[in-house]
Amino acid sequence: MLTTTRRAALVSTLAATGLAAFGDRALARETGAVGAAVDKYAQEVMAAFPDEPGLGIAVVENGQVTLTKGYGVKRLGTQDRVDETTAFGIASNTKAMTAALIAMLVEEGKLEWDAPVTRYMPAFQMSDPVVTKLMTVRDLLVHRSGLTLGAGDLMIWPAPTHTRAEIVAGLKYLPIGGQFRGGYAYDNVLYVAAGVLIETVTGQSWEEVIKARIFEPLGMKDTVSSPALVDRARRAQPHARLGPPVRGLGPQTVLPFDDSFDAAGPAGGVNSTPRDIAKWMQVQLGLGLSADGKRLWSEASSKELWKPQTITASSEGPAPDAPTRPTIQAYALGWFVQDHRGERILWHTGGLAGFISYTGLLPGRKSGIMVMTNAEESAVLRALRYGGPDRLQGRSDFDWIGYSKRLQADADAQTIKDAAKAVTPSSGAKPSLPLAAYAGVYRDPWYGTVTVAVTGKGKKQGLSVSFDKTPLLRGKLEPFDGEIFKTVFDDRTQEDAFLTFELKDGKAVSALVKAVSPLADFSYDYQDLRLTRIS
């Protein structure tokens, strides 16, 4: 879902290459051997990456839970250990849960997969009336709408004040940058719309439905639909590298816990624990049947949820430096699905500020692994995301730890170069107008208003900027290069942006926006803003 810096780079790599770790077909002869192997490997990963705060891991092996364990600490600098009841944000791993709820409602006749969304939500609109007419329930979940990567995410990130209804209403203003059903581009806002669809046909909130239909039947007592509901004594604290020179590099830093994610819950709001998430993995691997015999959805629905819908990547297959690269990868309903050495894996990643997670399921073995971390460390997750499934198949013949370290070192070196280039003005020109000429209220129809105001007087005169629906995106607006200005947000955990103003008749009339950092998460979708001055 939402990503942050290193996690964004990881998701990009996975989407492009589809790498995963697999091995031979031989099942472990003794139940518990896989859990023990993953436990040993997790300890090796923690030793190899000593500034990783903590991990939570769950393993299901041939339908049985054989590992639910914590590693490291909830917060750096403390001895508060992670355990099987520690809560992590699972972010976009929530999407499979929202998709499962839709499947249940389809079974009950309340929805149809291929019925138009407007049948149930007449006010639903996309910016293209043809897309509005053709958009089906299925289309909401498979990232083929024509929206660009992360389009509209500023309505859900970082901690904006948009309501769920406002997010859905904003869809009619988001530009369609691709062809409807013509390709893949990951989005979050349509999963929010799916949550509203669930509310519309059930008369209950998405939060009430997911609790009643998934958490309670599975006994997931410590799992909640929003960060705001997490038991403070139980939760892991998020961490990230905040620079210099950009977020994703520098020392590990403790972040404030973000509990303002309610509106985007259907796309990524769930927080869970290793002990609880194992139960969710069991019902997935059980084709809708829980470990204690409760039927949540049918086998036919499981097959529908796992059926490839949108091709996301293809390749020539395995190579010496990419031994598990698939020939084809696709998005199903809340899951990625692909081939790996003759086997099928279902997987998904998730990321929020200071949290990254990964789920990988091998349906043919009724086995899977879930990894939850409390830091934006793609190298750590990469090692586990590949090496974990290796252990599910009883193999450990590739050095994923070394591979991840090398890949991260190369990426960091390139980022340093790119970051230096990004903050070097190309012309060195000063603004062509007095600062007051840039001040005003600018509006984008899907996001809302951005206010630029004059601060101080005389030589101390400057500008401030406020993304008015996002309290965290407020601070100074400094001249950078001609008509390009750069934000310096008060909250330095946020990604700064360039505003490029268009001038007419002696004042700024509009502005385009883009992120400063080459590592900026795609959910900072500044580039989708089209700001027009309204006062």
Present the secondary structure layout.
Blueprint: H1 6-17, H2 33-48, E1 54-61, E2 64-72, E3 88-89, H3 95-107, H4 117-120, H5 129-134, H6 164-170, H7 189-202, H8 206-218, E4 239-241, E5 252-254, H9 265-268, E6 271-272, H10 274-285, H11 299-306, E7 310-314, E8 328-331, E9 336-340, E10 343-352, E11 355-362, E12 367-373, H12 378-392, H13 400-422, E13 440-444, E14 448-455, E15 462-467, E16 474-481, E17 484-489, E18 497-504, E19 507-515, E20 530-533
Antiparallel strand pairs: 1-2, 1-12, 3-6, 4-5, 7-8, 8-9, 9-10, 10-11, 11-12, 13-14, 13-20, 14-15, 15-16, 16-17, 17-18, 18-19, 19-20
Helix content: 25-40%
How many helix segments? 13
Biggest pleated-sheet summary: 8 strands, antiparallel
- Name the assembly state: single chain
Mean pLDDT: 93
Q: Which regions are unreliable across 5 or more consecutive residues at pLDDT < 50? A: 1-29
Strand order of the largest sheet: 2-1-12-11-10-9-8-7
Number of strands: 20
CA(first)-CA(last) distance = 35 Å
Shape type: globular
Structural class of the helix and strand makeup?
alpha+beta
* Rounded Rg: 23 Å
Strand content: 15-25%
Q: What is the structure about, briefly put?
A:
With 535 residues, the protein is an alpha+beta fold.
